[in-house]
Amino acid sequence: MTVTEGLAATRARIARAALASGRDPAQIKLVAVSKTKPLESIREAYAAGQRAFGENYAQELETKALALADLPDLEWHFIGHLQTNKAKLVARSAHFVHTVDGESLARELGRRAASAGRVLPVLIEVNVGGEPQKHGAAPSEIEEVARAIAAQPALALRGLMTVPPDEPEAARRAFETLASLRSLHGGAARLPELSMGMSGDLELAIAAGATLVRVGTAIFGARGAG
Ligand SMILES: *Cc1c(COP(=O)(O)O)cnc(C)c1O
Question: pLDDT averaged over the chain?
Answer without folding.
Answer: 97
